[in-house]
Design goal:
single chain, di-copper center containing domain from catechol oxidase, two-stranded antiparallel sheet, 10 helices
């Protein structure tokens, strides 16, 4: 059965299983680009661009490996997410991802491939600021702000989140389906992560004028190949491996592990950026703005300026 969705003018697979089965839509790039341009024109007619988010104050927070979090930090994260669910803000955050007109995945075409990393970086910041807002209410005496932990893909599913799915499926209003946490597909191992970060140049995207950024984002999103030409597990594979609502291309943020999964994507991009400073995506005009926010790609390059650092820069 074809579970494709159409949101606005964007045609896309409903599940990451379908994304993996179809592969990168190289043969549909012109169609997808035309649909994107139509939708972008419609959004400009509606107007109402967002303002730039205020610069963070104080020292940057440290995003830590979830496996190393203290019991107190794990509880604080869970409690903050539960409060966001209760006050309705969590649903608003999920709905931002459900709006595929933001063109933030490679399944939407070439622009979506280039926007994948910066759009999700800005999305994580929005979630992290909401976490900190409610955590300050729940823990008024806390001496450090809460941060999003990251989940290394070679590690098992975070055991402290196994029984934690506090939000309803936004499509049905019912509890989300259970996670699978099993292959197929394979989840990335340490060698795969090394290929993604350090051997990105082997990727053949099929795109004209590809540069190092193109090859890196192609691999980390989940379109790449290992040196033996088997599929290179990465972001897309992680969604499908977890399963349940994480397998849904639109509503996956309903599962709190989404944020840890994408923090690892962001961490690996940050590591790659330290060595590969100059390559950038071919994004012009409105495509360079990470709507629904006002920040451009250029505003989202320095994590410390954005208010956070990672406790490890080792892949």
């Amino acid at each position: 059965m074809d579970h494709s969705h159409e949101t606005g003018e964007h045609f896309h697979p409903r599940t990451f299983d379908e994304v993996l089965a179809r592969g990168f839509p190289l043969d549909k790039l012109d169609l997808l680009e035309n649909l994107h341009k139509k939708l972008a024109r419609a959004k400009r007619v509606l107007g109402g661009a967002a303002a730039l988010a205020p610069k963070p104050t104080g020292a940057p927070v440290t995003r830590e490996n979830q496996a190393d979090l203290t019991p107190e930090k794990r509880e604080a994260f869970r409690n903050a997410v539960a409060r966001l669910v209760e006050d309705g803000k969590y649903l608003e955050l999920v709905q931002a991802h459900m709006d595929m007109s933001h063109n933030m995945h490679g399944m939407m075409g070439e622009s979506g491939l280039y926007r994948f990393l910066p759009w999700h970086r800005r999305y994580l910041i929005e979630f992290e600021r909401e976490l900190q807002r409610v955590d300050a209410i729940l823990r008024p005496d806390a001496t450090a702000k809460l941060a999003i932990p990251y989940w290394r893909w070679e590690d098992p599913f975070p055991e402290w989140l196994i029984d934690f799915l506090p939000a309803s499926d936004p499509d049905t209003g019912t509890p989300p389906p259970s996670r699978k946490n099993a292959s197929p597909p394979q989840k990335a191992n340490a060698n795969d992560v090394d290929i993604i970060v350090n051997q990105f140049s082997i990727q053949d995207t099929g795109l004209s004028d590809e540069n190092d950024y193109t090859k890196f984002t192609y691999g980390i999103e989940g379109w790449g190949l290992r040196p033996d030409e088997t599929s290179l597990p990465a972001h897309n594979h992680g969604h499908a491996w977890v399963g349940g609502i994480m397998n849904n291309t639109m509503t996956s943020p309903t599962d709190p592990v989404f944020w840890l999964h994408h923090a690892e994507v962001d961490r690996l991009w940050h590591i790659w950026q330290q060595v590969n400073v100059t390559p950038e995506p071919k994004l012009d005009g409105p495509d360079r703005i990470m709507d629904p926010w006002a920040e451009s790609y250029d505003d989202l390059l320095d994590t410390e300026e954005l208010g956070y650092v990672y406790d490890s820069t080792s892949p």
